[in-house]
Fold these 4 entries.
Entry 1:
Amino acid sequence: MTTPRSPRAARPTPTPRAQTVTQKQPARLPRRHDEADFQSQVIQYARINRWRVFHAFDSRLGSRAIDAGFPDLVMVKDGHLLVCELKANNGRVKPEQTDWLMALQECGIRVRIWRPRDWNEIERVLTTYESEASA
């Protein structure tokens, strides 16, 4: 004995409708990803220009080894020390980051807060730091 087919199963599969393709803005990357990409670019450029670069793990997590807010990069070249906090163009410097930067600056260390829009300055500083340091 055969079971009758339902009327639904007997219907042919509809052909897909022509879909309208709309231009969408690319999804905005999360700020953390933006900063990570920017940081990689700065590190690469610094190394090309013969800077020694130190980057600590994510200091926001804190640990016994590092306090929260420690700057992203510590760079050394030819007797010059440069400490940088890197931010996305719309990123905010947190109070604990400001505290670290001020404490290091009080020790005579040059500190910078850099964003992607500061790339011209980044290139200038990393390629001609000696002339800036003496100014």
Entry 2:
Amino acid sequence: MKRIVVAPNSTFKGEAPNLDQFFAPERGTVVKPGIPYFKVVSITPALAMSLLKRMPKKSNRKLKRYRVNKYAVEMREGQFLLAQPILFDWNREPIDGQHRLLGVVLSGRAITMAVGYNYDPKIKPVIDKGAGRSNGDVARISLGVTSQEAKKASAVGAIESLFSKQRQISALEFVELYTAAEKEIEWVFSVLPNNKIGHTQVRAALAVAYKTKKDQEKVAEFARLLKENDGLRPGNPVHTLRRYLLESGEYERDQRNGDDMRDFGYKVLRSVYAFVNDHPMHRLFGGTSDPKSQQAMDYFAKAWEDIIIQQSPTQQANAVLPDSPEADAYIDDFIDKHGA
């Protein structure tokens, strides 16, 4: 894991914060029972730690270290963007925002955030249950694409899922990846417009493979044959993938048995890799746990290193984190106590 040294003026603990001042409403705010009020506050690592002490052990969602790391990286690099405020109930207990507070601790930076106070504790189960923005929504809002073009946004999340099994990517990460992969996405939608063959994960795997320049002609030929079924014989990896998708019933069986889309994407990549290297393939074995599928993924991933691994903070193992063993130990201990 790459690390950078915390700046001298960024302290892990700092001065003891005044919590009464933090929870006090701004002058002129009339506080009524059960009616939330808001402030914009600079959250220091010391203040974040004091607020986290107020978090009940089992009342919030499970904590995820990769999300804490992601926020810490964004905070260090000045890229942290989030419209949603941190929320506290009328007992002054945090009910939403623990990952962001832990991110502040790990980043060593003071971060300005919106904070909501005086919420009814009963809202905890319904937080984040509203209609979230899909990748297509983000594409329309952030990139100005049309509704028709926004359909291509599904491929972006599928591409990311091949590199990381963690979760849905943030809006910022989505925009970065969509922009970097636009050429490959445009290509794959032009050659596989049909949804039966052009399954989202098939398109994503082909887009990943197509970025390897020396193999583009072979990958393009694979996609053409997959669409046209032109003179394919048993043992050809394209024939094997077509049969898996359309004829054998194996795809439907694997879905019923719990295969996830990431496993399916790895199978597609293994078939593309076999075709590129002129290897026969009579059955679509594979998945994330299969060594040959992983070999195929590693091979095609090389063309994406600067995009996925170095630029995107979703890759925890390559994240640029502050060099603060004390903060690291605090985060690990906190997650241990509150459930990972």
Entry 3:
Amino acid sequence: MEFIALFWNWNFLKRSSFIQLKLEGFILPGKERPLEERRRHGHSDNSQGAEIVKLVLASVGNRARRDAFDTLADLYLGRTQGYCDVEVQVARTEASLLEWVERLRGRTAPVLALLDGRGKPLSSEDWAAWIGQQRDGGQQYVVVAIGPSDGWSEAARKRADWMVSLGPMTLPHELARVVASEQIYRAFTILAGHPYHSGH
């Protein structure tokens, strides 16, 4: 199985003393409190005290270099790191991605949500509610995956726990990464009651 190593580009944020290579406790100045800081102070993002989920944004494709879309996705995923552990994975093939997901099995099986045009269209509030259910239910890993250019195979769809549509319009995969990253961040702000989401 081959994976493309992604290197997070935070050059535009070098002045921030909060930045760490593994993104642990990342926070933009003046924004959410870092995850590790909240843990030290005994805070939880849910009333049930469930363990904070690790969310993986995965995609399939042969990406030789980073682009401006990655910078935007980094911005939202970095903000999300204030609420949960975030990881990015890029696989060269659908098969290698599915194999990697299977190896994530820990105390709970990973939850796999495929972004697919034939999936269920959701509002941001519904998307947040689903993520909240996974978090509060004690899921260890939630994988949100963007498929190959020719779409997900039938085998991948059968493996998925959920299929979600970003809308009826066709988006380039680079832009889909940005939209997915922003909606993941928005979901956690909705769950936390953060003013970022105000119905727009």
Entry 4:
Amino acid sequence: MPPEYRKEFGDGRVILVKGLDECVLLLNEESLQVARERILGPLNLNSRDGRNARRTFMSSVSRVPRDAQYRFVVPAELAHYAGISKGDAVSIVGDEDWLEIWNADRFVQVAAEGMDLLRDQHEQTPRAGTSGGPVRW
């Protein structure tokens, strides 16, 4: 785990759960609550689909021990879900309220797609206080 995030995981364990984009979320108890609210909050729990989605998310929660060097083992089911095999390089990426663990090759693709989306959105969105035309300095 990158040193800048270690202070958030002082209790000797980490929480891992399936992310929405074929990654594994790396959480502490506080960020698990945030993830539950953000991911499960919009679900209609009166519907079978909503309950099944909640059940699927919550059943993937794993609390795993970490050692003094902040190393931990990703359970096989979660590693498989994220496309991570023994010996694979991984990327640990901050995402505002939690960390994400990615197969490094997959993250390169996802990051490239994300940059394309950002670029497209930026080009289509006028700057605040402008007519959307060229900026003059």
